[in-house]
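For this section, I looked closely at a protein sequence along with its fold in token form, which I now present.
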Amino acid sequence: MQPDSVILVVDDDPLNIKLLINILAPHYEILFALNGEQALRLAEQCMPDLILLDVLMPDMSGYEVCQQLKLQATVQDIPVIFISSMNEHEDEAKGLACGAIDYINKPINAAIVKSRIANHLELKHARDILKRQATIDTLTGLANRRRFDEFLLQEWRLMQRESKPLSLIMIDIDYFKQFNDCYGHPAGDDCLRQVALAMKEAISRPIDLLARYGGEEFVCVLPNTDEQGVLYVAENLRNCVEMLAIPHEKSAVNSGVTISLGCATLVPNSEQRIADFIKTADYGLYQAKETGRNKVMLSQKSE
């Protein structure tokens, strides 16, 4: 049993919801929705660990809700269990074909429901651990490029729907090749780890993502952050690395290791492309490096 797990119960009958809450509330945090539209919205906003879904609902059936969930990258991995009075083999087969992992018949048996939910949550927990391991950069402990790509797409879509600003910071360690040539690659690896840790500690909001982009480059995604906010965060990152005072005698700008940062901000819409957004931030990084390094530049264009 995962005590911190969140379960979304979807049923148009409040009595059924109350019954499931009575069974599950002592062990899990329970959310509920009375129709398919509410369920889809809550699933994306709250990212529950498991969804219990009724089949027969007005406007949108449970089958349709499940199909919609499986089409959305951000929520498609949330396991779905149908709980339904439709107990023919064809009904169960249809539910599993929609992407559900299990099908439980009504009337509800508390012991069976608790046991199956516990088993499925245990499997999900194990899968989540493996997924996290696959999205972590082994050298720095930060998110890796794969996780960055997933997260940026997720937040791009969310900010587009909510018409909120999304910001991006591209970060490069100044004269890192010269650092490696002077101090050796083991020292270079240690430098990367120290820089990554310092920047991670400077990111205060849990919704922000700092990732290793590749080599000595890092990237930071800041949802719901405007130009003023991204410049504030970027300057904090620049300062925290400079304050490490890691010796760098081959640097042309400082006696210690420094970073250059390029920022971009927009409110995503269907006319824009993520690749261009990254290119814009990268152009800001280019400007920072061309105009002296160890500075923050807000980019307004990509070329």
Summary: The chain is about 45% helix and 20% strand. The chain has a mean pLDDT of 93.
